[in-house]
Design brief:
This protein is an alpha/beta fold. The chain is built from 12 helices and 9 strands. The longest helix is centred in the C-terminal third of the chain and has 20 residues. Bound molecules: (3S,4R)-3-hydroxy-2-oxopiperidin-4-yl beta-D-xylopyranoside.
Length: 309
């Protein structure tokens, strides 16, 4: 159904489960047409020492995806989190940090050239007030690290789509406007930014303002930037999840519907995990569309309903 709507419907997946759980794999193969690499490409995993890259786990995930005709979203090249000690304690100068980051980005992007369809190049670079978030990259290189990262990634694989990803930027707010302004100014300088990822880690009590999100997507459409709903999950905080699965389903429906209403701009809807059993959130929050026993939930049916319309 997603293929017919020209929509990518993805799930974040991990090496550990791909390597060990055949039921998990068969759901990924049959229910999605895209995956995001949830953890195995993060800095500590893939670049454990200055001169050492470890592609083993991410390769398994990427090869599994490609063998099954699933597009791959690489996640993530530049982030304030998951920075290894060798880098944190290295006391590198600005020039050295630029060399390290360029090498990091280009070694990884080259390794996955023609395999990774889209990259989350820069992740969570902003604060709520729209200022740039403190990170080792901002502190040592300065704000230019963002534009440089996109340029370096583009040099390494000119065909890969390049995304900036963050949370709390789907509606209209100081943060989302700062992100929008940065992306449009990078584009005006000729720096290739193809897309923006709205994470959308929600809970069922979240007030979702579809109109706001639509207006935000419209300004991206106007500058030729596509949107992914990149890390969707909806936590159920209550004690009795059964009572609340319909609310969760309704919200999943609204989110996908909002994406589909901006066709051509909103090109992917990605859930942050496959089953509640392996979600990054505590199991009892049951945030995903398959339950702990891998059964389809109301949330799953809600997505089907949205795709049918
Ligand atoms: C999370 C993973 O889901 C967890 O398994 C891991 O322990 C920590 O990172 N925003 C992001 C993701 O961009 O990379 C994070 O993923 C969730 C929040």
């Amino acid at each position: 159904m997603a293929d017919k709507q020209q929509l990518l419907i993805g799930a974040a997946i991990n090496y550990e489960k791909v390597a060990s759980d055949s039921k998990y794999k068969s759901i990924v193969k049959s229910e999605f047409n895209m995956v995001t690499v949830e953890n195995d490409m993060k800095f500590t995993s893939i670049h454990p020492a200055r001169k050492q890259y470890d592609f083993n786990k991410a390769d398994v995930v990427v090869n599994f995806a490609l063998m099954n005709n699933l597009r791959v979203q690489g996640h993530t090249l530049v982030w304030h989190n998951r920075i290894p000690d060798w880098l944190l304690r290295g006391h590198y100068s600005k020039e050295e940090m630029k060399r390290i980051l360029k090498d990091h980005i280009q070694t990884i992007v080259r390794h996955y050239k023609n395999k990774v369809y889209a990259w989350d190049v820069v992740n969570e670079a902003f604060n709520d007030d729209g200022s740039l978030r403190d990170s080792i990259w901002l502190r040592t290189i300065g704000s230019e690290y963002i534009g440089l990262s996109f340029q370096w990634a583009h040099e390494a694989d000119p065909k890969a789509l390049l995304f900036l990803n963050d949370f709390g930027i789907e509606g209209l707010s100081d943060k989302s406007t700062a992100v929008y302004r940065l992306i449009s100014s990078l584009k005006m300088q000729g720096i290739p930014v193809n897309g923006v990822g709205f994470q959308m880690h929600y809970s069922i009590s979240k007030e979702f303002n579809a109109d706001n999100v639509k207006r935000n997507m419209k300004r991206y459409r106007d500058i030729g930037v596509e949107v992914h709903f990149s890390e969707v999950d909806i936590a159920v905080p209550g004690n009795d999840p059964n009572m609340e699965t319909d609310i969760q389903g309704d919200l999943y429906f609204k989110l996908l519907n909002t994406c589909l209403n901006s066709k051509g701009t909103c090109t992917a809807f990605i859930v942050w995990g496959v089953t509640d059993k392996y979600s990054w959130l505590p199991k009892e929050k049951s945030p995903l569309i398959f339950d702990q026993r891998f059964r389809k939930k109301e949330a799953y049916e809600a997505l089907v309903d949205a795709l049918k319309q």
